[in-house]
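Worked Example 4.2. Consider the chain below.
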Amino acid sequence: RLQRRGGWAGRAMAGSAGSDGRLTAAVGADAASDRATVGTVSCDVVKADASTASASTSGPPELYGKFTWKIDKFSEISKRELRSSMFKVGGFHWYILVYPHGCDVSDHLSLFLCVADYDKLLPGWTHFAQFTIAVVNRDPKKSKYSDTLHRFSKKEHDWGWKKFMSLDKLADGFTVSDTLVIKAQVQVIKEASASPFRCLDAQYRRELVRVYLTNVEGICRRFVEERRTELARMARTADAGFRSYWGTAEGDRQRRSTAESRAGVLKAIVKRFFNEKEVTSTLLMDALCSGVSALLPLEEAEVARAAQEEARAAALEALAADVEAIRPSS
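Applying the procedure from the previous section yields the following structure tokens:
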């Protein structure tokens, strides 16, 4: 369940402990880090190294960031809540909030991602982000992960899990030397609602695909099933050519098809597949963006080929006119 601290706020897909050690492998020896210490709590803001930044195809690298928070002497903490130091991603400041003994629940660790100084931001502000929070286990395969997508605002400036994990599981490799390690990945999303858009850092996308590929395939499969009758009719008329298919289409359908611009079609695709409450939406947009990008060269080549054919036909027509002009009259 995904919740604000104040109460129930809906739910989205959440990843559980995986077998790929996603987050623990994200911080390498080549990463640069800035360290800040607050009492018994130490934080590392992990910045992408040059190779990671250059490999990203999601836009400016600052839209994606990693954060590590190490809480020492965890079993001795008596405070109701702890805040990490602030870190910056996408031009915004964030922090992680943890309730060692649960927020409005008992016997659970509660974790939230929060917007810093939310009450000082301009009226009407929103930050749209996808993020993953993990509590690291000594065995990377047993680390606990949760992923979500959320639009932060003044009313919903914190988002996370009241029941992230049961406290009785912490002793099973999560508090080595009485230190709890929390890691986060935050991807700020800049939407382009008029066309499928690339919104995920390349490395983050690969990690999410390993977890949610089956879900993405299921969404696409359901879409095809919903359109199966129409697609089947199109397939049956394919052999007869487009002329036959077009002749069977109703007048209104013909008018709508010819009047719809490419931009209108792409905007409809985004509206159909992008759901702010579904963590898989960003993966779908990335996939659709790749598909559109792959089709563009083909479309441009087709336009160029049509232009060449038109120029050739015009040249032949001009040549025929010249021949007709110089031909002796009988």
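The radius of gyration is 27 Å. The helical segments are 50-55, 202-226, 228-236, 242-248, 251-259, 262-273, 281-326. Compare this with Example 4.1 before moving on.
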